[in-house]
Amino acid sequence: MRNDELRPRHDAAARIELGCPHFAGIFALGAALKLIEEIGMRNIEERVLELNRVLTTGLSEAGWRVLSPLQNEASRSAETLIEVYKPAETVRALLRRGVVVTEKPEGIRAATHFFNNESDIERLLAGLNEIRG
Q1: 119 — phi, psi (to 5°)?
Q2: Cα separation of 64 and 128, whole Å?
Q3: Which of 8, 44, 57, 103 stands 20 to 30 A from 64 (CA)?
């Protein structure tokens, strides 16, 4: 890539484009992929599903309705759909407690990732129980 000359484009849309490749993002992607490779995809899968089991067990024990299918362990994912009465309000209330979830029409979606831990799940459950009051 050369940055010592200017060659303006003549077509209308391209004429106003600015910039160059996002090198920071490219390097970060490389580092992220290297980290995932070091950890191992199978280890990541096992961890997120383990955390998901902790989450869904905690939700069920606390009386929350899990809408995600849990009957077939082979099709379990790291995402859990939880029925709540007012999803938008729940998302905002949890965010104030440092918990990030996604609003869905039927409730909220919580996702367990390999960078999460059991205390994150405890904070989500505590927040939901406080909101339900």
Answers
A1: -70, -30
A2: 9
A3: 44
CA 58, 59, 62: angle at the middle one, nearest 5?
85
Distance CA 113, CA 49 (A): 9
Angle of CA points 60, 62, 64, to nearest 5°: 60
Please, what is the average pLDDT of the chain?
90
Matching residue, tokens 């993002």: 25
Spatial CB neighbours of 116, under 8 Å, sequence gap ≥ 6:
48, 51
Residues 6+ apart with CB under 8 A from 68: 56, 77, 79, 80, 81
Of 36, 51, 35, 43, the C-alpha closest to 111 is 51
For residue range 29-55, list pLDDT tens digits in order.
Answer: 999 999 999 999 999 999 999 999 999
Question: C-alpha 16: how far from its chain's center?
Answer: 34
Which has more confidence, 94 or 21? Answer: 94
Distance CA 113, CA 51 (A): 8
Structure-token match 């390097």, residue found:
27
